[in-house]
Design brief:
Number of domains of chain B: 3
Oligomer: heterodimer
CATH superfamily of the largest domain in chain A: Beta-grasp domain
CATH class of the largest domain in chain A: Alpha Beta
CATH architecture of the largest domain in chain B: 2-Layer Sandwich
Strand content of chain A: 15-25%
Structural class of chain B: alpha+beta
Radius of gyration of chain A: 15 Å
Bound molecules: FE2/S2 (inorganic) cluster
CATH superfamily of the largest domain in chain B: Aldehyde oxidase/xanthine dehydrogenase, molybdopterin binding domain
CATH class of the largest domain in chain B: Alpha Beta
CATH architecture of the largest domain in chain A: Roll
Distance between the termini of chain A: 41 Å
Strand content of chain B: 15-25%
Helix content of chain A: 25-40%
Structural class of chain A: alpha+beta
Chain lengths: 157, 788
């Protein structure tokens, strides 16, 4: 067992865990943050995306111990003070989700994608969003409304 | 209220929990003292099982139990079943081999369940599963559906040639006669590629035996928890039905694959009693690839007989269908009653004959996947029609128009059993031509050519049969269940409404659509209606969600329950308003005496029913009404899809430029949700046409068992879609006039894409049209041209 300490959604947490425990397992099973989903466990689908120190990370293929001392944000911590993040709101407004399973990872990826574009002065258009979400699979929506949602969310962010 | 009513794009009730990560899927549920299961799966496609040595595994840390097929047999459990008895041409019943929940004596596909290890933690279960030593006697495997008949390999004892059934439909003599007199015959040979449904939530199960109550609870990723309960109690025999609760909480997509009853959920439930702990299993993605039921996998030959004007005279089809190693829950009806009955399509072809041979192979079971039989029928027919157009030198739109069933011919009896109640196909075609700017295509093609690209356009006119029914008819065709649906509307004192439905929502948005429906029918606030589904201990008995049935069947049951509320409300209102029941009219949530201003709101009536101080003598208190609805017929959505794409001849890459979908779904409750369903279906259909393929090698190894090898459609593979729902034709046999929209996109799109590819490259290739295949086809044509 190894001790690991992180800030998760603004709160300091310390746990003794098996060194081989994945970050996704740590969040889901140790902390009960089940909004982070596991769709493939091989870094392919993006259902498990969280933010580590502000960057999106696929938590299914990272060990929790790698993030000792880091600050992690999950979907549960994305909204502030009980309000939704504009990207969450945009997904609902634009029907950017159906079964909801990919949605949390999709929103986390989108927030990071938009943030990076804004930092780099990139125009957020359909092409940019489609290329940028290439690492997130959705089986339900055909992406049509996800793309709309991300563009709308970007405007509101 | 009106803004939330029928026909408005209300934002979904379910979304708040999903966008905040507070959904509750099966793997999110943790029961106290829960243990974890890991399955030992066969690495061989076909092998005898000699001894299984579990001693090393049993001695490993945390292991609570290791169980095999012998333990299942010793407990006297039955196996999984196929719930539809299809009969062969000669009247003999289909040949169903045993389907044990843990393999017994033999394994029949890679991934077949041989043993289960239950341990304190998932890692311990996984480690111990590797220590289970199975002595396999490897046998040759039959993998290819076209070759299994003559392979000499016996997959199930006493099932010769691995033939499940040899079935037929239609008038063979009339069809053959029409061919004999035809001016022209067009023929195609087609493969409908095998697919893996790939809902993003992998299958999972959490079984819990409560010794004190001698009762079982199963949390599972199911599209139809009641049918799971039925099969697990009546056929597998783990628990009597009244002592078993099946809960399908939030389910992360299904697309058919979660209709079926699987071994793993049965084993978790059974093992829970053995170890006296709740037992959880969640598939990893490779397990899902190996063991979820796959879809499609047909090999067909189809011929169309025509007169000199391109009028269809007769259609003749032979199909070989791959059923995999075992018959999954509804597998037998897919390549028969959900496939060949659709071969008339939108056309008035007078004679049709189809025969289907279904075979076992050493591959994962094959069953319904979004569309289930109807995409296979549509792909076959619409490819053939496009080839007919080419042979007859007719425009693809024109040949369809010439052969459409005319508007005034409905109800229309097809030569393949179905009777279409309603339809009007030309307006959809016209609208699609307009939205796709068909007239401008030659110019766009010229522009592409100027850039060195090949441009193509392809059509598809699909018909679908949804809401499979009526029970008596499907029963006579071999179905083991009825396909009605149920609903309950329950009022509380404060006028709030709980709606209980036997359907299940796993992305379709029933919590919203059904609330809109009830709010409109009963004149209550949309916010005051809560829809409950997916828990057999709470809801009415139901048949679940598949075949685009939920609204057409489940929604209509809900209407019937609302009607009962109104009928009872009228009795109460008549009493309170001192009028005759016949004079009470119900409108917008108010019961009024006709021609007066005397009225009572539905809230007041409900309160009177629950606090019956002043109440009609003899009338039962309470306001809770249940209805069951068995439809009179299928519903028949239809539409026309047009795909326009560009091919890069240097790389073979296909890029869709525009995809136009025009659908007639009858009446629509929530247009936003309907469009979303079409988008999702289109992505899956385009995925089948361009990207997805489940491939077994000759030894029966699934070599496309991860997202590295099986190409899922991603955001940058697809365009935005042009989707249009026409005012269309309302279904004539349900009061809502609705038809169902969940599968249309996946049914109509593959032939549109493949017809466009063929148009672009001048030759027909099989699905998926990968860059390699397209490039090779182009090389071949160029070589052939150079040789001329
Ligand atoms: S679960 Fe992490 S990428 Fe799929
Ligand atoms: S909403 Fe179901 S996978 Fe994206």
């Amino acid at each position: 067992m190894t001790s690991v300490t992180m800030t998760v959604n603004g709160k300091a947490v310390t746990r003794d865990i098996e060194p081989r425990m994945l970050l996704s397992t740590f969040l889901r099973e140790e902390l009960g943050l089940t909004g982070t989903h596991v769709g493939c466990d091989t870094s392919q689908c993006g259902c498990c995306v969280v933010h580590v120190d502000g960057d999106s990370v696929k938590s299914c293929t990272a060990l929790a111990v790698q993030f000792d001392g880091a600050s992690v944000t999950t979907i549960e911590g994305l909204g502030q003070n009980g309000t939704l993040h504009p990207m969450q709101e945009a997904f609902r407004e634009n029907h950017g989700l159906q079964c909801g399973f990919c949605t949390t990872g999709m929103i986390m990826s989108s927030v990071d994608l938009v943030k990076k574009a804004k930092e780099q002065g990139i125009t957020i258009d359909e092409h940019y969003v489609r290329e940028g979400l290439e690492g997130n699979i959705c089986r339900c929506t055909g992406y049509h409304n996800i793309v709309k949602a991300v563009i709308a969310g970007a405007q509101a962010m | 209220m009106a803004t939330n009513g029928i026909g408005s794009s209300v934002k979904r009730k379910e979304d708040l929990r999903f966008i905040t990560g507070s959904g509750r899927y099966t793997d999110d549920i943790q029961l106290p003292h829960q243990a974890y299961a890991c399955f030992v799966r066969s690495p061989h496609a076909h092998a005898t099982i000699g001894s299984i040595d579990r001693s090393a595994a049993e001695a490993m840390p945390g292991v609570l139990g290791v169980f095999t097929g012998e333990d299942v047999a010793a407990d006297g459990l039955g196996g999984l079943i196929c719930g539809w008895m299809v009969k062969s041409k000669d009247g003999s019943p289909m040949k169903a081999g045993p389907h044990p929940i843990l393999a017994h004596g033999k394994v029949r596909y890679v991934g077949d369940h041989v043993a289960v290890v239950v341990a304190e933690t998932l890692q311990q279960a996984r480690d111990a599963a590797e220590a289970v030593i199975v002595d396999y006697g490897v046998l040759p495997a039959a993998v290819d559906v076209a070759k299994t008949h003559d392979s000499g390999i016996e997959i199930h004892t006493d099932i010769p040639n691995n033939l499940v059934y040899d079935w037929e439909i239609g008038d063979k003599a009339a069809t053959d006669a029409a061919f004999a007199n035809a001016k022209h015959v067009t023929r195609v040979e087609l493969i409908n590629n095998r697919l893996v449904p790939n809902a993003m939530e992998p299958r999972a199960a959490l079984g819990h035996y409560d010794a004190g109550m001698d009762a079982y609870t199963l949390y599972t990723t199911s599209q139809n928890p009641h049918v799971a309960r039925l099969v697990i109690s009546a056929f597998v025999g783990i628990a009597p039905e009244h002592k078993l609760t099946v809960i399908a909480p939030d389910v992360g997509g299904g697309f058919g694959s979660k209709i079926f009853i699987y071994a793993e959920e049965c084993v978790c439930l059974w093992a829970s009693k053995k170890v006296r702990r709740p037992v959880k299993w969640t598939a990893d993605r490779t397990e899902a690839f190996l063991s979820d039921a796959h879809g499609r996998d047909h090999v067909s030959v189809a011929e169309m007989a025509m007169d000199e004007n391109g009028q269809f005279l007769a259609l003749r089809v032979n199909t070989k269908a791959n059923m995999g190693a075992y018959l999954s829950t509804f597998s037998s009806c897919i390549p028969t009653y959900l496939y060949a009955t659709l071969l008339a399509g939108q056309y008035k072809t007078p004679a049709i004959y189809c025969d289907v041979q279904a075979y076992y192979t050493n591959t994962a079971p094959v069953d319904a996947y979004r569309g289930a039989g109807r995409p296979e029928a549509t792909y076959l027919l619409e490819t053939l029609v496009e080839e007919c157009a080419k042979d007859m030198q007719l425009d693809p739109a024109e040949i369809r128009r010439r052969n459409f069933i005319p508007k005034d011919a409905f109800p229309y009896q097809t030569p393949v059993a179905l009777q279409y109640d309603t339809g009007d196909y030309e307006p959809c075609l016209d609208k699609a031509l307009e939205l796709a700017d068909y007239a401008g295509f030659p110019e766009r093609r010229r522009q592409s050519e100027a850039k060195g690209k090949l441009r193509g356009i392809g059509f598809s006119a699909y018909i679908e049969a949804c809401g499979i029914a009526p029970s008596a008819v499907i029963g006579s065709l071999g179905a083991g269940v009825g396909l009605w649906e149920s609903a309950k509307v329950r009022f509380s004192h404060t006028g709030k409404v709980q709606v209980l439905t036997g359907t299940h929502s796993h992305g379709q948005g029933h919590e919203t659509t059904f609330a809109q429906l009830v709010a409109s029918k009963l004149g209550v606030a949309y916010e005051d209606v809560d829809v409950i589904h997916g828990d057999t201990s709470k809801t009415t008995v139901g048949m679940g969600t598949y075949g685009s049935r939920s609204l057409a069947v489940g929604g209509e049951a809900l209407v019937k329950a609302c009607d009962k509320v109104i009928a009872k409300g009228k009795k109460i209102a008549a009493h309170l308003l001192e009028a005759s029941e016949q004079d009470i009219v119900f409108q917008d949530g108010n019961f009024s005496v006709a021609g007066t201003d005397r009225s009572k709101s539905i809230g007041e009536i409900v309160f009177a029913a629950l606090v019956p101080h002043n109440y009609p003598p003899g009338l039962e208190p309470g306001m809770e009404e249940t209805a069951y609805y068995d439809p009179a017929n299928f519903t028949y959505p239809s539409g026309v899809y047009i795909c326009e794409l560009e091919v890069d001849p240097d790389s073979g890459v296909v890029e869709i430029q525009k995809f136009t979908a025009v659908d007639d779904f009858g009446n629509v409750i929530n247009p936003m949700i309907v469009e979303g369903q079409v988008h999702g279906g289109l992505a899956q259909g385009i995925g089948q046409a361009l990207l997805e393929n489940a491939v077994y090698d000759e030894s029966g190894q699934l070599i496309s068992a991860s997202y590295m090898d099986y190409t899922m459609p991603r955001a940058d593979d697809l365009p935005s879609f042009v989707v249009h729902t026409t005012a269309g034709t309302a279904c004539t046999h349900n009061s809502l006039g609705v038809k169902g929209c969940g599968e249309a996109g996946a049914i109509g799109s593959p032939p549109a894409v493949m017809n466009a590819v063929a148009d672009a490259i001048g030759t027909r290739i099989s699905m998926p049209a990968t860059p390699e295949k397209v490039w090779r086809a182009l090389q071949k044509t160029q070589l052939a041209q150079a040789a001329e």
